[in-house]
Amino acid sequence: MTSPLDPIAPSPVVSAREVRKRFGPTEVLKGITLEVTEGEVLCILGPSGSGKSTFLRCINHLEKIDGGSLEVNGEFVGYARHRGALRELREREIARNRVGIGMVFQRFNLFPHLTVMDNIIEAPIHVLHQPPKQAQAHARTLLAAVGLADRENAYPSELSGGQQQRVAISRALAMRPQLMLFDEPTSALDPELVGEVLSVMRRLAEEGMTMICVTHEIAFAREVADRVIFMDEGVVVEVGTAHDVIDHPQNERTQLFLARVH
């Protein structure tokens, strides 16, 4: 029996149960089971083709799973229960379903014909139906936080890769998400620009944002991750603290990967 003085366990934000995904004859995810709790930072490591990015895309229904279940804050993303079975939602319903999930991609995916400000306020105005002045005020706060207060009228082509990625993070945060997904957000950047993006992510972690980060930045994972997962060939090979997985890996495949990336 739970005592009133016992600490309440953080509620799971993401619950994955035996998640499977195929592309044609190739099974890319082979039964992924994990939970991510509120305020947790989970970093996913692994070689290219291990299923890391596919799993991330399944969380917000950019890819449909072929087996198992995936819930965010206790609800299926992209599906609803109907007469005891799961029914896939319409695209407009799925968009509403995704509101609480922010995602930052390898490529920045900014609208090239819109200014920085217009990129950030597009979804809050048209999806959340925020008044333009309110959306603009929040966007300016976000831009100031990532060091881009003076670039709200610039176009993406006028920004460096690091600046574009910081705008992309601001755009995701403008929807006030409860969960942030990062899919190798520094992999398309020149080495000297990586630090400015990681510093923004580091600050989000310090502020308690629930985050799942697919990354090859081992030092970053060691510093900010509450837990680290190593994936290979569609399965979770090893999971634990950064100290356990990065500094003292037990699995031979994890050891080999880390030796190569170091």
Write the layout of secondary structure elements.
Blueprint: E1 12-23, E2 26-37, E3 41-45, H1 52-59, E4 67-72, E5 75-76, E6 79-82, E7 85-88, H2 91-97, E8 101-104, H3 116-126, H4 132-145, H5 161-173, E9 179-183, H6 191-206, E10 210-214, H7 218-224, E11 227-232, E12 235-240, H8 242-247, H9 252-261
Parallel strand pairs: 3-10, 3-11, 8-9, 9-10
Antiparallel strand pairs: 1-2, 1-4, 4-5, 6-7, 11-12
Helix pairs in contact: 3-4, 3-5, 5-6
Describe this structure in words.
The structure is a single chain. The protein is α/β, with parallel strands linked by helices and 262 residues long. Helices cover 35% and strands 27% of the residues. It has helices at 52-59, 91-97, 116-126, 132-145, 161-173, 191-206, 218-224, 242-247, 252-261; strands spanning 12-23, 26-37, 41-45, 67-72, 75-76, 79-82, 85-88, 101-104, 179-183, 210-214, 227-232, 235-240. The strands form 3 sheets. It has a 6-stranded mixed sheet, with helices on both faces.
List keywords for this structure.
six-stranded mixed sheet, alpha/beta, single chain, four-stranded antiparallel sheet
Largest sheet, in brief, is: 6 strands, mixed
Q: What's the number of helices? A: 9
What is the approximate shape?
A: globular
Rg, alpha carbons: 19 Å
N-to-C span: 47 Å
Query: Strand order of the main beta sheet, please?
Result: 8-9-10-3-11-12
Question: How much strand content do the residues show?
Answer: 25-35%
Average pLDDT taken over every residue: 91
Structural class from helices and strands? alpha/beta
Residue share in helix: 25-40%
- Secondary structure tally: strands: 12
